[in-house]
Write a sequence for this structure.
């Protein structure tokens, strides 16, 4: 579905997280079903004869709309959050607002890809998020995934905290959105691989996930990645265990498809007439669901080079500081096949965003 990040009144471009149009000042809100912004008045909008309300978390930056049937008034993305800091902890809640912004971007992308998102309150091992603060709790919060629940440390929304960890761990890239994409990869590995034949194929690419995880974790942090890891893996962390290799590869699939979709939405392309490096134009697509992974990766190779050059011209590091070697390309192909085979229909996405809220008292 084509995203429409434009003001409904003056048609000025707006970012996905904005509550007001930067040009005309109109109050706006985003509708996941239509992928459009709508003007709101007195906290509600009329969309094709139906009433939608602003999310009850709008005061904390949520700009999504909620169908009138949603019980507590929280949008679909906010309903996926299971645990948050205490309501009196305003400092932690400010970090939560920033993290929820990244989560809404994740949920939107998963909906665009047609991936199933059964909420944690509707089924065993459904998708949910525990968003806690190590600073407020005074103890570490372990980032991870278990039985559908993704736990994140809100302290990672602080640039200095996150950057210090990135440097200490020797990572070329570390963002809250990156964490979300990685952890949701663990969730979808168990959702999208539903039979033993597919698991066997998965093991051919990533290794046997049944090997002891704790032993692999201890080995990784004591000895590091094996020599020559970059010849077969997308990152050092992916060498730790087959689960982590899949999750890292899944995250990069989301990095690539999300960035190419944005490039396509704003009309970016590469003109072959201005360079002798290639003989065809590179025109990113809004969706690669009907394309082979080779088309996706070929477009990304050229576009990521352009993005990296642009970043360097501003004195920043590469936008995408990774190399996709042939074994990683084959892993991405496996993920591409899983994702495109699981594509949900527009009606299924509509059912998600219009569903009743989670049971009272959960």
């Amino acid at each position: 579905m084509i995203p429409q990040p434009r003001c409904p009144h003056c048609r000025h471009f707006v970012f996905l997280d904005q509550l007001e149009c930067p040009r005309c000042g109109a109050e706006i809100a985003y509708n996941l079903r239509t992928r459009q912004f709508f003007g709101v008045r007195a906290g509600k909008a009329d969309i094709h004869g139906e009433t939608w309300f602003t999310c009850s978390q709008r005061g904390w930056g949520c700009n999504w709309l909620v169908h009138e049937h949603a019980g507590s008034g929280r949008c679909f993305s906010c309903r996926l959050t299971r645990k948050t800091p205490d309501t009196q902890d305003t400092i932690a809640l400010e970090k939560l607002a920033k993290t929820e912004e990244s989560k809404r971007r994740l949920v939107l992308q998963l909906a665009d890809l047609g991936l199933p998102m059964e909420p944690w309150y509707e089924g065993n091992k459904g998708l949910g998020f525990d968003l806690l603060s190590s600073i407020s709790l005074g103890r570490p919060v372990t980032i991870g995934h278990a039985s559908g629940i993704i736990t994140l440390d809100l302290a990672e929304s602080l640039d200095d905290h996150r950057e210090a960890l990135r440097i200490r761990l020797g990572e070329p890239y570390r963002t809250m959105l990156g964490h979300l994409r990685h952890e949701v990869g663990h969730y979808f590995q168990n959702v999208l691989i539903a039979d033993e034949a597919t698991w066997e194929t998965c093991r051919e690419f990533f290794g046997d996930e049944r090997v002891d995880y704790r032993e692999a974790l201890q080995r990784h942090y004591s000895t590091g990645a094996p020599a020559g890891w970059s010849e077969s893996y997308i990152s050092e962390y992916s060498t730790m265990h087959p689960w982590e290799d899949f999750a890292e590869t899944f995250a990069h699939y989301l990095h690539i498809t999300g960035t190419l979709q944005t490039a396509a939405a704003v009309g970016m392309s590469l003109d072959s007439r201005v360079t002798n490096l290639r003989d065809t134009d590179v025109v990113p697509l809004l969706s690669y669901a009907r394309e082979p992974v080779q088309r996706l990766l070929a477009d990304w190779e050229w576009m990521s080079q352009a993005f990296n050059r642009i970043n360097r011209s501003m004195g920043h590091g590469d936008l995408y500081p990774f190399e996709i070697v042939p074994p990683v390309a084959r892993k991405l192909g496996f993920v591409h096949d899983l994702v495109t085979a699981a594509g949900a229909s527009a009606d299924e996405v509509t059912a998600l965003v219009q569903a009743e809220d989670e049971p009272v008292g959960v």
Q: What stands out?
A: Strands lie at 28-31, 36-39, 44-47, 50-54, 65-67, 81-83, 128-132, 144-146, 149-153.
